[in-house]
# Entry
Amino acid sequence: MVMIIGADTALGAAMATALSAAGFQVLDDAAERVPIDCNRVLYCHDAARDPEGHVAALDALCRSLAATRTMDCQVHFGVFTPANACAKAGRAIRETAMLKPLCQRDLAHAQAELLLHSWFGRSRTAILPIVFRHGELYAAPDDRRPLAGHVNACLRRAKSLQPMRFPGLGLQKRTLTHLDDFASAVAAVLKGDFLPDVINVPGETMAIADYMNDICSHYGLEASLASDPFDDDLPWGLGDRVLSAAEFRSELPDFRLRHRFRSWLALGN
# Structure
């Protein structure tokens, strides 16, 4: 059984679909509290829309769990951290990377991850953290359930024919993962008997200029060079933000991505 906090978000809805397909019983946060027989919780609150509330609501939920759960009734509690919240390194970002967020959304995610580990570190709490780190998630733009991140920010602008501006030359590399693939990967991890503290979910490596050119070409737009961002989803001074997924592949060697960005975009998304 898995409870999803924030089932009405893009991430939460995708998680509900993937977990149901994987055979889990899925509960949403319409319930007043986490049932005692539920040992999996995923926190899918939208930090981009409510960064301050993101941490406050998580802390309140952890307080409730700490007050009602004993050590013989532990619960694995999952949060999601974007690669942009991790410290820049000269190589692919590993699970051991420290946190160094440079924008408000990623600060909220980093605080949530640290808060969860803090609750775990307190004596006699039954909260077991599991952190899923991801790159740039993308999906078809949905005004009802917007998805944060630079790729989807570009898709939203292009769909409404707004100007597109490259960050510098756009040579920085990112890890791109379709939202459905990400949710399926999380479900696959949760089915395991021994869950990791932190795990990077895989994707495909693309330069910012490449995926922006693909989007512009698809929508018949031209992009210009600029140094100013058009949203808060891409810390502008960062270089490559590629996730290492070696640990994920060693744990789940049969997992395969079903979506590739260019072929997905060509299908009319």
Summary: Residues 51-68 form the longest helix (18 residues). The CA atoms of residues 80 and 132 lie 5 Å apart.
